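Hey, resending since the last one bounced:
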Amino acid sequence: MATTTERTAGMAEIEGDGPALRYAKDGAIAWVTADNPSRMNALTGAMWGALPAAIGRAVADDEVRVVVLRGAGDKAFSAGADISEFESGRTGDAAKVYDALNDAAFNALTDCQKPTIAMIQGFCLGGGLGLALCCDIRIADESSQFAIPAAKLGIGYNARWVRPILAAVPADRAKQLLFTGRRFRSADAETMGLVTQLVPKAEIEVTVRALAQEIAENAPLSVAAAKRVIDEISRRPEHPDMSKLDAAVEACFASEDYAEGRRAFLEKRKPEFKGK
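The structure tokens again:
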């Protein structure tokens, strides 16, 4: 649990105490942390509600090139929604309000214009797995476990939240995940497609930082164009908006970064991209 003012080397201050979504910036990387370790980083309604603002903050900051989503500590990425709030927050009309919070959080990650990485340690369950699946890349440690136990709680899993599952795994795997509510260990999750890369527990933060830095050092407009193209074609394979995608690619060729990339290649030096 974070203290009232917690400072991590190279990061901005993280304010607040108690269960919360924390935001910190470390150079070109924004870290968004679900901080509720006593409940396996389960997300309260307030935490769900804070996620769109955190993503918006990262997108608005020109210094941020990559967003990493993680859980506090190393026991859980997130156990999903805080079940202690279900009795009051997920019955009757209140359930619709809660679902709207969830939907806004998922959409904020899915629509984020900058690359997103889920750094998964330990338990990644329910809505926590849903959030991870909304990220572009998922790096998990070998101790991680995955499940969506909606069927074990009598919950109807919102159709909007099935789309990120189907973007990661085939339909039969999605059915296995939702029909059984079973927990899958890391190796099975990787085989299914839930995880992009598995790494030893002791190496996960180093691996994620290195990956984020590698992405951050590339031309932001090029990365954004690739993300937009892949997402648009994946979501609308039959009718992608090619004019929008062509415009994103053309913007790269018209950019200062493209000129910088050419000069750096000719001068045999590392380019310094500015996202312009």
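The radius of gyration is 19 Å.

Sorry for the duplicate.
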